[in-house]
Amino acid sequence: MKKPWREIKEMKARFCELALGLCVFFGPWAADKVCAQAASSQGNGLALHLTLAQAIEEALKANPSLKARGHQSRAAESEAKAADRSRWGALNAVGSYSYLNDDQIIRPMSSELMANGILGAPWDRSQAHYGLSYEIPLYLGGRLHNQIQIAKLEAKRSAELHEGTRWQVRFNVVSLYSSLQALEQAALALDGQIAALTQTRTNLDQMVSIGKRPEVDRLKVIEELEAARASHASLGADRRKVASLLLSVVGRDPAIELEVDPQTAPSMAATSGSALPLTVDDNSAIRAAKLAAEQAARGVKVARSDLLPRVIASANVFEHTGTRTDRDEETWGATVSVVLPLFEGGSRLLRVSAARARQAAAEEALRQAQLQTLAAWQDAVAKLEAAQTNLAAAAARVTAAAEAARIEQVRYDTGSSTIEDLLRARYREQAARAALATARADFVISAERINTIAEKEILP
Questions:
Q1: Would residue 82 count as lying in a domain?
Q2: Phi/psi at 335 (nearest 5 deg)?
Q3: 64 within a domain of the structure (yes/no)
Q4: In what helix (H) or strand (E) does residue 275 lie, and over which residues does it extend?
Q5: How confident is the model at residue 37 (pLDDT cuts 50, 70, 90)?
């Protein structure tokens, strides 16, 4: 028969592995600001108490991964605005200085310049040229328009990824918080077991001393009592680990002592399968994949634009001077250039082929995102239904196990039962309470998983 604190070990190991897995993507980060707040709390010797709502609120404000996504989203928005404004061309200030081997004319030759003869032209070997240059694209075969649209799509995709991260952070907080509550409830169950075993050992000390019970009964109780204490210490270490992970997710110093609300029975009033949608076909992951596919389609148009002519207009105004001449010459001009692509070794066609391959890959990635979301939804609904059943069964199990333990205690006290029967009953009671804590946490996590996949408050 599996001993109850072994069940506890399996339960807490499962919770801790889940908690660690949920937080892997957060990675290392700097938290100087929150560490200063944590130092203040530690200096006062006070534990930090967080409700679930407070933990979620803090995580959505201070979680490093979520903040990083926010910065990336804002950067993408700025890139999109920059790309859109590039259609207005570029105005630059230009300047140069030249020192030549002999005197040369300081500005381009013109008929007006030669009106006074060649000797009357401005000559100098030390020359400076400065002015303004402006260039604007008139036609690029659709390249500029599609590049602007790609940048705008990237901004939207980044915003969708930020939204998805927001829901994932929320799910991580709920999972870790519920796991921490379950570990504390399991520790309370062990406390009750330890108290009962301690009382039984005290009674046996007296009974053994007067010869009413054999010494072996007392030794069996001592062995089980010490095993329960060891399991309790292990639970404490695992609680510290899960609490540290939760503090990390909310952006606080993991060394802070954390207190959470006691675990309560969750409400199952609005969690029937009929209340859930049959499927989810629109969340941030799917929308981001759709935007990526649209970007890839635009990328094909950008690649095709290399096969089309380009028309660019430019204008400039320059001042030309020298160190030995007393004349400053001003020139200006406007140009319209047409570039016809003729030959580049076939590289343009290869780039079009590569863009089409990227488009096909993006379309398959969209299909994969849709299938993964559908599969995750079916899994989440199945886990929710299983959690409902397990929760009801665990509650009934606690009631039965507690009554059985009470009866076995009475039987043992009256001499009609053995110490093994009593210990087995105590084991079953403690294991049932631990299983109830696990079932409650699983139910809360399963409900939150539904909300996370749908990215809206379907279940309370």
A1: yes
A2: -140, 140
A3: yes
A4: none
A5: very low
Task: For residue 341, give both structure tokens.
Answer: 């692509």
Question: 210-231: per-residue pLDDT in tens?
Answer: 888 889 988 998 998 999 999 9
| 12 touches 235 (CB < 8 A) | yes
Q: What are phi and psi of 86, to 5 degrees?
A: -70, -15
CA 441/CA 455 separation, integer angstroms: 20
Q: How many residues does this entry show for the chain?
A: 460
How many domains is the chain partitioned into structurally? 1
Write the CATH number for 412.
1.20.1600.10
Tokens of 276: 């859930």
- The pTM score is 0.79
Strand order in the sheet with 123-139: 90-105, 123-139, 310-322, 329-339
CA 204 to chain centre: 55
Q: Per-residue pLDDT tens for 40-57? A: 444 455 789 999 999 999
Q: Are 224 and 419 in contact (CB under 8 A)?
A: no
Q: Which helix (H) or strand (E) holds 334?
A: strand 329-339
Give dist(CA 214, CA 216) in Å, integer: 5
CB contact at 8 A, 314 and 135:
yes
Copy the structure tokens of residue 459.
């279940």
Which domain does 187 fall in, by range? 4-91+141-309+346-454
Alpha helices in 252-346 (DSSP H): 284-305
Distance CA 171, CA 447 (A): 10
CA–CA separation, 21 and 68 (whole Å):
20
Which residues touch 391 (CB under 8 Å, ≥6 apart)?
Answer: 266, 268, 436, 439, 440, 442, 443
